Amino acid sequence: MIVILDLGSHYNTVVARAIRAMGVYSEIYPHDITAAELKALPNVKGVVINGGENNVIDGVRIDVLPEIYEAGFPVIAAGHELAKCENLAEFSDDEKAIEDALRGFVFDVCGAQANWNMTNFVADQVELIREQVGDKKVLLALSGGVDSSVVAALLLKAIGNNLVCVHVNHGLMRKGESEAVVEVFGRQLNANLVYVDATDRFLSKLENVADPEEKRKIIGGEFIRVFEEEARKLDGIDFLGQGTIYPDIVESGTKTAKMVKSHHNVGGLPEDLQFALVEPLRQLFKDEVRACGVELGLPYEMVYRQPFPGPGLGVRCLGAITRDRLEALRESDAILREEFALAGLDKKVWQYFTVVPDFKSVGVRNNARSYDWPVIIRAVNTIDAMTATIEHIDWAILDKITKRILAEVPNVNRVCYDMSPKPSATIEWE
Ligand code: XMP
Question: For ligand 1, atom 20, which residue shows the shortest CA distance?
């Protein structure tokens, strides 16, 4: 492993990923790690001190402890020249020189071996999970998202039916999603899976609630209550599995990085239900999590699925959710996804979905006046979800999707395409 010491550079993760892309494992540690702590880490071959634009915290310039240089490891101070390249994997000529320097350090100076790959990662984690958990049981909330699915498959490989997965269907899943969780984990992988259909419970709590933040709060709160009730029914659980990944940890704040948002995967359960956490993906970047899922044999659609918000279709069925509009939303979204896949757009567009507003418009159907819901199509590209641009979709594809939605989805008489970038709009409508 190559250790990167964090002096507040935004490029720590870029460097970590570049080293991992060379097949050498790399982890980021706080700048004030002691020589003893560094020596206690497994298989350290060298240290990258990655200085940067933020190494003044509260007016004080931070630095690594001088003893780090005497700890017996090769050290490179990477600093500012690395900070110039946004993505080390795609170098122009100058940048190529920097990658060569990093490569020379990793292999020639440190003598690291390129033996970090997903096969070895899975084997290592299986061993570590078994060490941590022994013959105790692990509970996991399996939403069917990429992270929870991959962590489920990994835990299943490590401890088999001592893993108990709970899938809560809040009634706001996309078409076929809960079914896929049951099919893949329940039937194909034979996991110990508790399936809870809480649709009625969620929809009745959400009845007449129009405010988006209020809807989010209800969905999040109710989810924890349902999960907690299931947890209490089970005996002898000691651990809680979580699909925490590296960006979750970074976003929750480090010694040098400001907090972006609180880590929504952690906590929420009542005091008397606190379990020890098992988080085998906590050092992985998103693309590595997907590679891990592929290594574990999960279906492509599950591993490469587009991002889906926690509150699910609840924030796309605008205003107070009603069953007829939720149905129109689910069906139109399924058509959109099907047609995007046929056109190869599913591999190109970052996020695409439909939205159903809470107002009607006039149309004509079978020579009679109709008064029905519109469906809005949204398709965006982004790097980090902070800003986004719209996808320029071929007219013929939009035309086909529109015709299908109007023919196949009840109570819809109009289809629109959202042209707005972020900003001024956000990606979701609520
Ligand atoms: P916005 O709408 O803020 O969305 O531009 C940015 C990204 O975040 C997703 N999103 C959410 N994800 N819970 C989530 O887990 C939420 O409440 C939520 N709201 C938005 C959105 O789908 C997009 O990918």
Answer: 309
Element (H, E) at 278: strand 276-278
Give the domain extent around 362: 322-417
Residue reference for tokens 């979905």: 353
Q: Which two tokens stand for residue 219?
A: 């969905």
What is the per-residue pLDDT across 193-211, written as a single tens digit (0 to 9) for each? 999 999 999 999 999 999 9
Task: Report the separation in Å between the CA atom of 33 and the middle of ligand 1, taken as the mean of its atom positions.
Answer: 35
- List CB contacts of 201: < 8 A, sequence separation 6 or more: 222, 226
Q: Given the CA of residue 385, which atom of ligand 1 is nearest to it? A: 6
| Domain edge (last residue) among 61, 79, 109 | 109
Which run of H or of E encompasses 353? strand 351-355
Q: Is the domain of 161 the same as that of 48?
A: no
Cα 105 to chain centroid, rounded: 32
DSSP E strands, 143-215: 163-169, 192-197
Token duo for residue 187: 């039937």
d(CA 84, CA 69): 25
* AA letter at 406: L
Q: In the chain, which residues have pLDDT < 50?
A: 83, 259-267
